[in-house]
């Protein structure tokens, strides 16, 4: 009986792996998955290549959602003017709730009455690597991420810097890389 319990607990833990520490709690609480086509957390993180996605989102206000795979979820920022292709052109990026990895493939229409109602398309996607020597998670906690993006539109080193311990960050492309 104990062996059965241990197996059950291990299986339960695997199902939670993408949501370790409750990273997706806010995401789940804001959505009614019977009403919205947005994905639930089903894709499990894999070691190796990290993904990024930028989604153009016609919600209450048009904006771009910039997402980086960090610690098994997509860390997400709303970028009102979208990421710039020009070096050193700074853009406001407002940290939002983490999204499941499945969201990197999401395009569709979020119905009226649902959180974030409006059309969502994938504007750019690709892989990225950490430029800094410390981990992505540690860089995020310190408030400075430097990543080399390899996308169709976004290519090169981009920096995210948190402003004064708030949800506001600056996003810009650098001359590095």
Structure description:
The protein is an alpha+beta fold. It has helices spanning 2-16, 25-29, 136-142; strands at 50-58, 62-70, 73-79, 91-95, 108-110, 118-130, 144-151, 155-162, 168-173. An 8-stranded antiparallel β-barrel has the order 1-2-3-4-9-8-7-6. The chain is globular, with a radius of gyration of 17 Å.
Which characteristics define this entry?
single chain; about 180 residues; alpha+beta; eight-stranded antiparallel beta barrel; 3 helices; about 40% strand; globular; disordered N terminus
Number of spatially distinct domains: 1
Tally of DSSP helical segments = 3
Query: How does the major sheet shape up?
Result: 8 strands, antiparallel, barrel
Which structural class do you get from the secondary structure elements?
A: alpha+beta
Helix content range: 10-25%
H/E element sequence: HHEEEEEEHEEE
In what order do the strands lie side by side in the largest sheet? 1-2-3-4-9-8-7-6
Cα-based radius of gyration, to the nearest Å:
17 Å
How big a fraction of the residues is strand?
Answer: 35-45%
Low-confidence stretches: 1-21
Tell the overall outline.
Answer: globular
The number of distinct β-strands equals: 9
């Amino acid at each position: 009986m104990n062996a059965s319990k241990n197996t059950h607990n291990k299986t339960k833990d695997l199902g939670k792996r993408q949501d370790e520490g409750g990273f997706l709690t806010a995401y789940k609480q804001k959505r009614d998955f019977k009403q919205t086509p947005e994905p639930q957390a089903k894709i499990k993180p894999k070691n190796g290549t990290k993904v990024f996605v930028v989604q153009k989102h016609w919600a209450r206000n048009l904006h771009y959602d910039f997402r980086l795979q960090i610690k098994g979820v997509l860390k997400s920022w709303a970028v009102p003017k979208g990421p710039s292709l020009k070096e050193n052109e700074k853009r406001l990026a407002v940290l939002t709730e983490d999204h499941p990895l499945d969201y990197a493939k999401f395009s569709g229409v979020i119905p009226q009455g649902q959180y974030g109602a409006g059309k969502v398309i994938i504007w750019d996607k690709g892989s990225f690597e950490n430029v800094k020597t410390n981990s992505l998670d540690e860089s995020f906690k310190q408030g400075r991420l430097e990543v080399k993006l390899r996308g169709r539109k976004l290519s090169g080193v981009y920096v995210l810097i948190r402003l004064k311990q708030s949800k506001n960050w600056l996003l810009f492309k650098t001359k590095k890389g």
